Amino acid sequence: MLFNQQIKIGFLTPYSSIYPGLTPNIVNGFYCSMPEQYQNMFHFQPEYVKQGGGNTVKDAILKLIQFDNVDIISGLVSYRKIPEIAGIMEQRKKLAFFFDMGEYIPYTQHISNHLFFNSFQLWQSEYALGFWAQKEFGDKGAVIMPIYDAGYHLHSSFRQGTVSAGSKLIDYHILPYSEGKSQVKGQLKPFFEKLKKEKPSYIHALFCGTEALDFFTEFEESGLAGKIPLVVSAHMATEEMLDLVSNISLKMYSASMWDCNSTDVLNTKFKQQYTLHTGAKADLFSLLGYEMGVLFGKLIPDLAKRDWDSVIQNMKNETIKSPRGDRNFFLDSNYSTPIIDIEKIEIGSGKVNKMVINQGCSLKYNHEIFSEIHNECVSGWQNPYLCV
Asked: How far apart are CA 38 and CA 302, in angstroms?
């Protein structure tokens, strides 16, 4: 099929020290899902948005639309920017397809026909972990996190999960900010001593990046390991993260929404296509891009005609099959909830062993809990991305 004009996708690209390849991985994931004869139909144009805060994202979108004349806006965007972005996209009648890790819960009052989302929904894993931990270990758990991670909706989602399971008490421990120093290394001892005296039913840790690695090391050295159950966030329990600390001996629990090593037919196909296309190992970001590509592959006839009304209508109604279950991309009551596995994890002697021990529960979009989480977590935190 010949195309008179390429579909130009302006891609908002944040700086990431932790995942420097996130943009090329998303884009490569998109292309590896697309039949070869359609790949030249799409052109991605990256636009650097620094840390993604302030007016940077807004200015980047306006540039891409007004000067670069892109057809679609995509990239990593925080939900905190959506109220502002929605008006721009509607006024200029442009389509947006955004990615996010799910560190924030979506705004229920900003559904727009011009905005679509592919989220990893980390907050769902936190809700599921809270619900499960309360049922498994009982009331009065303790949540420990640095001030950075306290600026998102994850700890609130965890708490709401415990409340839904009957919790009456939960303790929060937020590490103080130390300028120019590690927020974890050497900072945890007083908190661990307090937890030894209080003996919570479990400890839930919320750390990202190198701070997660520091936490694992100091937790093992604290004497608490094996005495109080440790529950860690999904981004702390990735294989990439655990491999780095697999020399220490720890047992913990977490939640998974995608098992890269699954032998499921769809997952095997995705990994083979990605490796064949790039020569690299698939990761979460390549999966997010792959899902976008599968969706856009279904829209080829309308995209080729540049019939944007039909594209939008079909995107609202389309559900795709993905390695992480059914996925759709329009924020309404039918927005797909993830499949969540509760895992028991053991590390030591350079090995990481995971075993699924339960299925986690998730929340449907527009649940009343959403507004409660927004109201109880009013943050002035300026970095819109967790772990990016």
From this structure: 13
DSSP annotation of 81 reads G
**CATH of residue 299:** 3.40.50.2300
Q: Which of 91, 72, 108, 137 is nearest to 302 (CA)?
A: 72
pLDDT in tens, the chain (388 residues): 555 689 999 999 988 777 788 899 999 999 999 988 999 999 999 999 987 776 889 999 999 999 999 999 999 988 878 888 899 999 999 999 999 888 888 776 667 889 999 999 999 999 999 999 999 999 999 999 988 777 788 998 999 999 999 999 999 988 887 776 666 777 898 899 999 999 999 999 999 888 899 999 999 999 999 999 999 999 899 888 999 999 999 999 999 999 998 999 999 999 999 999 999 999 999 999 999 999 999 999 999 999 999 999 999 999 999 999 999 999 876 788 899 999 999 999 999 999 999 999 988 877 777 777 766 654 444 455 555 4
If one counts the domains in the chain, the total is 2
Same domain flag for 148 and 193? yes
Same-domain pairing of 42 and 156 = no
**What domain range is 37 assigned to?**
7-121+262-327
